[in-house]
Amino acid sequence: MSRYLACARMQFATVLTYRADFLLTLGLLLVQIYLLRVVWTAVYADREVAAGVSVHTMIAYATLVSVQYALFTSWRFSQIPQRVREGKVAMDLLRPVGFCGQMLAGQVGGTAATLPFILVVLPFALLVGGAAAPASALAAVCYAVSLLLAYVITQLLALTVGMVAFWTLETTGMFMIYRVAAQFLSGALVPLWFMPEPLRLVAQLLPFQATAYTPTAAYLGQLHGSGLAAALGVQVLWVGLLAALARLVWSRAVYRVVVQGG
Predict the structure, then answer these.
(1) Among 159, 18, 182, CA closest to 77
(2) Which pLDDT value is given to residue 228?
(3) Whole-angstrom Cα distance, residue 219 to residue 142?
(4) Fewest CB atoms within 10 A around its CB: which of 5, 63, 196, 261?
(5) Among 87, 85, 158, 111, which Cα is nearest to 7's?
(6) Helix crossing, 19-44 with 55-72: angle to 10°?
(7) Known InterPro entries for this protein (predicted)?
(8) pLDDT category of residue 91 using cuts at 50, 70 and 90
(9) What gap in Å lies between CA 4 and CA 96, rounded to an integer?
(10) What's the CA gap between 113 and 15, in Å, rounded?
């Protein structure tokens, strides 16, 4: 465990080194939340409710999802292509912690470094966006569980995409496609309850909706009873499947490493 903590501490220090850049990102987050509030207020116009969802709930949803996305940012995995191109991955393989474990522990360290900034920004985010208490005490507990599962799913997805660099050396385009698809199909831009039926079915078959929609809908009470239990079960299922996929990809990727010279 101490080895994983060491990996986490290294990434923790790296993120804090560039805290000015991160504070600028958080400033942009507040602008995004404000713009989402303006847009959704305009969309609802003079209606109080659309598709059974009030404008207050919709703005709270958009605010919460935006903050979650800032917290879930995958710092570590976008560095994999650079480490592969520069040969630094060879040093990673020499460490007493597996490559995937190093990446995931580093990501946890990066998230831990951003957490205090998120907590500072959160009141301002709720002020420019919208705040809503959990639908119930049970919703708050389920939200905490679902948020943790969503974090694991997000990092496993990003790790798998990042490891494609062992074949392509460059994943900038792939990460752009992944982020656009993930942001839309997760319900971060448009909640699943507003999507057309065919598109909603597609989104429900993919893991992205388990990273944003599920925890936020649980918090707001849009998922409850058997529907909430099923959604949590789907998240657990995706954690297992994506962990197996990441393990499979790494088992193939490690044979792509060729070390030249001494």
Answers:
(1) 159
(2) 93
(3) 7
(4) 261
(5) 111
(6) 160
(7) ABC-2_transporter-like
(8) confident
(9) 10
(10) 6
- Measured at the CA of 159, the angle between CA 158 and CA 163, to 5 degrees, comes to 115
Mean pLDDT calculated for residue range 105-113: 87
How many CA atoms, within 13 angstroms, populate the side-chain half-sphere of residue 55? Answer: 13
d(CA 124, CA 39): 18
Count CA atoms closer than 13 A to 191's CA, side-chain side.
Answer: 28
Of the two residues 190 and 236, the one the predictor is more confident about is 236
- Return d(Cα 172, Cα 78) in angstroms, integer: 8
For residues 221 and 135, what is the distance between their CA atoms, to the nearest angstrom?
A: 5
**Each residue's pLDDT tens digit, 211-224:** 999 999 999 988 88
Sign of torsion over alpha carbons 97, 250, 88, 104: negative
| Token output for 26 | 């958080």
Residues found in the chain = 262
For residue 200, give Cα distances in angstroms to 6, 8, 17, 234: 42, 37, 41, 15
Instruction: Report yes or no: 199 and 220 within 8 Å, Cβ to Cβ.
Output: no
**What is d(CA 214, CA 236) in angstroms, rounded to the nearest whole number?**
12
For 180, residues 6+ apart whose C-beta sits below 8 A from its C-beta are none
Please say if the pLDDT value at position 261 is more than 60: no
CB-based burial, 58-75: b 16+ in 10 Å, e otherwise: bbbbbbbbbbbbbbbbbb
CB atoms within 10 A of CB 240: 10
Angstrom CA distances, 197 to 13, 194, 212, stand at 45, 9, 19
pLDDT score of 21 more than 90: no
- Average of per-residue pLDDT values in the chain: 86
